[in-house]
Amino acid sequence: MTASAVTPEELVGPEPAVAGPLSFPRGFLWGAATAAYQIEGAAAEDGRGVSIWDTFSRTPGKVRGGDTGDVAADHYHRWAEDVALMRELGLRSYRFSVAWPRIQPDGTGRIHRRGLDFYRRLVDALLAADIVPVLTLYHWDLPQALQDAGGWPVRDTAHRFADYAVRVFDALGDTVPYWLTLNEPWCSAFLGYGNGVHAPGIADHQRSIEAVHHLLLGHGLAVRAMREAAGRHNVFGIVLNPTPVSSASGRRVDLQAARLADGMQNRIFLDALLKGSYPRDVLEGLARTVDLSHIRDGDQETIAAPLDVLGINYYQRFTVAARSTHDGVPWDRPSSLQPSWPGAERIAVRPNDGPRTAMGWSVDADGLLELLVQIDRSYGPIPMLITENGAAYDDDMDPEGQVRDLDRIRFLDQHVRAAWQAIQAGIDLRGYFVWSLLDNFEWAEGYSRRFGLVYVDYQTQRRFPKHSAAWYRRVIEDNGLVDGSVRVGRPRTRRMDRPIGLQPTLEEVGAAAGVSRATVSRVINGSPRVSGEAREAVDRAIAELGYVPNRAARSLVTRRTDTIALVVSEPEARVFADPFFASVVRGISAAVSDTELQLVLLMAQGEREHEKVERFVRQGHVDGVVLLSLHGADPLPAVLANAGVPTVLSGRPQGEPNVAYVDADNLGGARRAVEHLLELGRRSIATITGPQDMSAGLDRYDGYVETLRGARVRMRKALVEIGDFGEESGFEAMSRLLRGGVEMDAVFAANDLMAAGALHALQAAGRRVPDDVAVVGFDDAPLARHTTPPLTTIHQPIDQMTRAMAELLLRQIEGGIARKAHVICPTALVRRASA
Is 184 a catalytic residue? Predict the structure, then answer.
């Protein structure tokens, strides 16, 4: 579905800005977000009614520490102070929610003026501070009276919500441009009514599915009603929390588990809103366990009311598997809970590698880029806002009153870069909102988790901007990441006695040192044309003022961008399915994070994309390129070599290498695999080799042939099959070998996915592994530890390879080595039960 056209100034489409290589479009909305129940407090003041979260949080055992939102961050009384703080932080926009019980204490009837006046004052103050208001109508605080009448599982609640929405719109529609109906209906339905970890605390699959539908119906009714009274400046949307869902392996049961999880996490909402119908496979699955008669004729047309903008809340990705075949934690934690949605009990979540937040959530900025691209390609172009993105960490204030939250800066830096990459990929992304402005009541976790840019002392309600707040102010000032103060490896921690975000200028440093601006630049860039006395004066001024040289200052002499590109020149289906690529991307990101370099990801799957990459590189946007291209016919390595930019290729190129490369010892690894099988006494050794236009496939096949010849074991063509490095192709290749009737007591597969497929085919044919047929793979991918039996394989040192790629590229950039250098990393046999 294509979004309806909108033309307000706040939604100007992407237009290249000129500030630097990571500049965002002009008019991009940089903001922060909050929610009424989490920050307002004043739960019983000015006629506010009781919400389901008041009731839930006051019930013993429901919220950690017995915390409630009765006081929260006291925003209801401190809103003026908080708006001044937003202005000081440089926010261009602020996303907040209206508390339904403040407007209609019982959820129906006339408007409660004192409640509405609070939001009028807040909006007026935001506009006076030149901050764009973004209003969310429902962020989980349903009036308790409506819950007593049945809540979201009851159809009438959708109509009550539409009535409430249009009444608030009538009061504030002329001053608030952005109107978002619901926040994360997935949580409202499945955590509130599915497993009961959120208010109202009900665990009933039938009611949770009814809640999904009526939440979406309420959204559609509200948009239709508000649009009838809207002006041209009003923008309508909804906020979802979709997440990338990956299969832990290419096995059919795990792919089915990922499809189910994706359906219940993502497609059940996105399809209904943007395609006008629920996914067929989701409805068919639900029909086996719940009654769907609450879905009436015409409902889905109402739900699919045209959207002007789609809000995306992103925190982490999920890697899932069928619980019958893999270890892993249940989809719902703790496992004693009823699953939040029908079928969740059949799914295990595999922990992702890498750092985690205090919530236990994995940090994966690449998932944000993947998510935005997939939504755009699955549903057509639609303007999007990242309405929430942030992280909880165990923030401590030091004796100087500083909160040096470097982990949060790293998190935000990575995700802002992913947002920029999405825009470069053509995604119509209009804004980015950090969750959250303030530390606040984090739902069932109470006050134990801090997400804010601003530290809140809950005893005194004093606000203390964290170092991430100063970092974010500079991002907003620069309209992106354009200087060294925002790099992952070197976040700026400003002196907090200066006004937040006011970085000293070169002129100020020069004035303090008694030298010119040009002399300061020469010192920063290491020019020898500066006297020792002047250098000491500049260094002293930099230390006293807390100046951090930005990219523009450093580049006056070096002409460097401090940016490298990771270019993936492989089909998307392969990239997202093969664990090798994910490992390389993570490894390169980790290697670069230890430097001052920034990393951009460029996908190049065809001639047009190749041309865009070549143009991007030739225009000098990057200092070097790491290229993931495994197919010999790919012209991109030669193109980049001719462009003269330092380039390192992942994998040995076929023919005469014209670029530097890093590869595993594929030939030696294959030899070790076959030698191991020979040592076990196996003599009829088959192979499933990889594509012959890939150097890895050729080298592993050559290793197989040479080892058999060296051992004087006859090699028979009937024992050779070719796969495409996918699990299904391994299954089919082994099935062909079995149908051929040739004697076979072992098989060497050129990668672990094909080896896993071969295992399934052997077991389906009644062959015992390893008694009848021993199996060895290559790569030591994570799935190798979880096959039945676990897979003997050749370990490919991905971490060592990615470090070598980064080091080789950096040395090229510095001019330290020839551009045709190469590194071959050793492989090793990993013995498990399959051979």
Answer: yes
